[in-house]
Amino acid sequence: SRGINAEYGGAGLGGYLAQKFSEITFRNPMVISLILCNTFSDTASYSKGRMPSVYYMMPSFALRRQVLAEIPSVSNNGHIADSIDFMVEQVEKSERSTLASRLV
Predict the structure, then answer these.
(1) How far apart are CA 33 and CA 18, in angstroms?
(2) How far apart are CA 75 and CA 28, in angstroms?
(3) pLDDT at res. 3
(4) Under 8 Å CB-to-CB from 101, ≥6 apart: which residues?
(5) CA pseudo-torsion sign 60, 66, 72, 73
(6) Could you report the per-residue pLDDT of 51-75, keeping only the tens digit for each?
(7) d(Cα 99, Cα 97) in Å, to the nearest integer?
């Protein structure tokens, strides 16, 4: 039997969980779309042992490099390429405290 198709959203950990739910239900799709805010796609950064307060002491260029490290630099898909360009522009405009808060 099919489940109810719905639009899901989440912020922070909730966004991660919404992505995982979409991933595990792909054989019987229940997710029409995802609305994500300030979320992440994996939890690997939490296993690196960094203390969140370290990010607030890092210089802007290091924070930018850290944020952009997980973003692909090139895509053959025009929409994805435009999205990557937009994300890079936003990261470059962001202040140090904003960048640090995105990594915590």
Answers:
(1) 10
(2) 28
(3) 60
(4) none
(5) positive
(6) 667 778 888 888 888 888 877 777 7
(7) 5
> How far is Cα 44 from Cα 66, in angstroms, rounded to an integer?
13
Task: State the DSSP code for 75.
Answer: -
Q: Do 53 and 35 touch, CB atoms closer than 8 A?
A: no
Give the predicted TM-score (pTM) of the model. Answer: 0.48
Crossing angle of helices 96-103/60-68, nearest 10°? 40
Residues 6 or more apart from 18 whose CB is under 8 A from it? 8, 9, 10, 31, 34, 36, 39
The Cα 21–Cα 17 span in angstroms is 6
Nearest to 41 by CA among 61, 9, 82, 13: 13
Backbone angles phi, psi at 88, to 5 degrees: -65, -45
